[in-house]
Design goal:
This protein has 112 residues and is α+β, with helices and mostly antiparallel strands. The protein is 39% helix and 20% strand. The chain has two domains: 32 residues; 51 residues, no CATH class. It starts with a strand and ends in a 10-residue tail after the last helix.
């Protein structure tokens, strides 16, 4: 598509070539990756705004499911030792699973 723009004095005509291309798969993948990073940053800020942080555990994974774990448990007032982090996080994640399973809409289509 070609658009013509004229300046206000009508002395020059400028022709611009405009192409409406679909983004490449590489651009789309980068956009999705950026969304994950933005969500991580937003969640971290939301957590620090919500509570007086004494420790943390972060679990992340790549497209193959390979985990990467980071934690901090060295604050003097931290009630969770680094040896307890696996059990503590498992309990937290199990709570999420239990919540999701208890919602009636999750049971739609299943025989009771």
């Amino acid at each position: 598509m070609t658009k013509k723009l004229q300046n206000t004095e009508n002395t020059n005509v400028i022709t611009l070539n405009v192409f409406n291309r679909k983004p490449s798969s590489r651009v789309l993948a980068r956009h999705e990756n950026d969304k994950v990073i933005d969500a991580l940053h937003s969640a971290a800020i939301a957590i620090t705004d919500r509570m007086d942080l004494k420790g943390y555990a972060l679990v992340a994974w790549d497209k193959k499911g390979v985990p990467c774990i980071s934690y901090y448990a060295d604050h003097p007032e931290n009630p969770i030792s680094d040896m307890m982090i696996p059990s503590f996080t498992q309990t937290c994640f199990q709570g999420i699973v239990s919540q999701r399973l208890s919602k009636p809409e999750d049971l739609d289509g299943e025989e009771q």
